[in-house]
């Protein structure tokens, strides 16, 4: 409109940093777990690889907290989202499904092609229709179906958590109401103190809702509410709930210390204090642009690093290397090459499959627009 200032697109630099770092740790964790390359790397760097093997997977808690933070942001800002929970949940499912299915197909094709050179921990049998349907419904964990790829359990869990939060806000009358925030804080409390202590519940959303709920509460308690003036304070009630949830988290750690909960508390506290939006500038530094790209493409990296891991390990075996005979420099070269190839594959996957401007999405919009 004439005379109306148009702000550049908002972004969250802190979220970019957290997602970029967490995604790298998850990739490195899987490279420390699977195949002969991981064995060679453990021999070359036993302490570092041991830490990644034992603790690298807790980085997924960063994504759970951020997921709750962004879900609360979106559901609170849009009245239609929580008033029509079915539509909001389906929209989330439709956003996650295409790249998720493409990635699974890539994994299955790689596994079928590379099977002669894959070790037993990587060469899973060909999936049946039941496995495919369970994965398409994102219920593979609940149904007890063997996962077709490392990390896809997170996609199913993210969908479960989003659906649960959406239904809670719908039943409570919306994300801006006190009773909605109270309900989220209550379930977060029960998850931290009870559900998250039983590993047999890790296929259900309530197991991880402690981290997800902390993220949602961090959004409501942030220093500057959405679209507020710089001086506008956050809701005192929301901030009180967030502080109480943090206290419950600390109590949960004294009862049963879990490093994943300690990390979730730290990330939520960081987001509540510094997770505000900024606006894109034309003169961003190269470092800022790189971090933003890695953050935006973290989901693509999550999906695509496992087929690259399969290729890396198969090539390692095909070229005649073994963990026992490989030097430290050889092991590190293969590990670095696999990591770099994962980043490259994620970049391609984001541009051609996941991105809102991917060619297939533009073509689909063109077809639908002509009808």
Describe this structure in words.
The structure is a single chain. Helix 1 packs antiparallel against helix 4 (60-77) and helix 10 packs parallel to helix 12 (259-274). Residues 1-9 and 225-232 have low confidence and may be disordered. This protein has helices at 13-31, 35-44, 46-55, 60-77, 79-83, 85-114, 129-136, 152-172, 178-193, 205-221, 236-255, 259-274, 286-296, 298-318, 328-354, 359-369, and strands at residues 10-11, 278-279. It has 16 helices and 2 strands. It has one domain (10-361). Strands 1-2 form a two-stranded antiparallel sheet. By secondary structure, the chain is mainly alpha-helical.
The Cα radius of gyration reads: 22 Å
Question: What is the overall silhouette?
Answer: globular
The count of strands amounts to 2
Helix and strand pattern: EHHHHHHHHHHHHEHHHH
How far apart lie the N and C ends? 30 Å
State the share of residues found in helices, binned by percent: over 70%
Task: Please report which band the strand proportion falls in: under 5%, 5-15%, 15-25%, 25-35%, 35-45% or over 45%.
Answer: under 5%
Mean pLDDT: 88
Oligomer: single chain
Spans of at least 5 consecutive residues whose pLDDT stays below 50 are 1-9, 225-232
Order of strands across the main sheet: 1-2
Number of domains: 1
Q: Would you tell me the structural class of the helices and strands?
A: mainly alpha
The number of helices is 16
**Largest sheet at a glance?**
2 strands, antiparallel
List keywords for this structure.
2 strands; 16 helices; 371 residues; mainly alpha; two-stranded antiparallel sheet
């Amino acid at each position: 409109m004439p005379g109306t200032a148009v702000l550049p697109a908002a972004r969250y630099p802190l979220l970019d940093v957290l997602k970029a770092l967490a995604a790298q740790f998850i990739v490195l964790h899987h490279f420390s777990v699977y195949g002969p390359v991981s064995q060679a790397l453990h021999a070359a760097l036993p302490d570092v690889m041991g830490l990644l093997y034992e603790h690298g997977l807790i980085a997924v808690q960063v994504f759970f907290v951020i997921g709750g933070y962004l879900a609360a942001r979106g559901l609170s800002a849009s009245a239609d989202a929580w008033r029509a929970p079915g539509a909001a949940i389906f929209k989330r499912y439709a956003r996650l499904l295409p790249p998720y299915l493409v990635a699974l197909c890539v994994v299955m094709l790689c596994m079928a092609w590379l099977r002669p050179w894959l070790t037993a921990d990587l060469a899973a049998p060909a999936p049946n229709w039941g496995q495919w349907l369970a994965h398409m419904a994102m219920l593979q964990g609940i149904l007890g179906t063997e996962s077709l790829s490392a990390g896809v359990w997170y996609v199913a869990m993210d969908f479960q958590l989003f659906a649960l939060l959406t239904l809670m806000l719908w039943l409570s009358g919306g994300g801006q109401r006190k009773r909605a925030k109270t309900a989220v804080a209550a379930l977060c409390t029960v998850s931290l103190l009870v559900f998250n202590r039983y590993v047999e519940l890790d296929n259900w959303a309530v197991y991880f809702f402690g981290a997800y709920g902390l993220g949602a509460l961090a959004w409501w308690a942030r220093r500057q509410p959405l679209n507020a003036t710089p001086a506008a304070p956050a809701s005192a009630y929301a901030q009180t709930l967030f502080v109480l949830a943090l206290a419950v988290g600390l109590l949960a750690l004294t009862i049963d210390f879990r490093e994943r909960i300690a990390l979730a508390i730290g990330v939520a506290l960081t987001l509540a204090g510094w997770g505000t939006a900024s606006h894109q500038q034309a003169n961003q530094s190269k470092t800022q642009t790189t971090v933003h790209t890695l953050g935006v493409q973290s989901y693509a990296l999550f999906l695509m690093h496992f087929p690259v891991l399969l290729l890396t390990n198969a090539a390692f075996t095909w070229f005649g290397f073994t963990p026992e005979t490989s030097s430290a420099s050889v092991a590190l070269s293969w590990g670095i090459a696999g990591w770099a190839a994962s980043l490259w594959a994620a970049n391609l996957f984001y541009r051609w499959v996941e991105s809102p401007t991917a060619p297939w999405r533009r073509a689909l919009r063109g077809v639908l627009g002509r009808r």
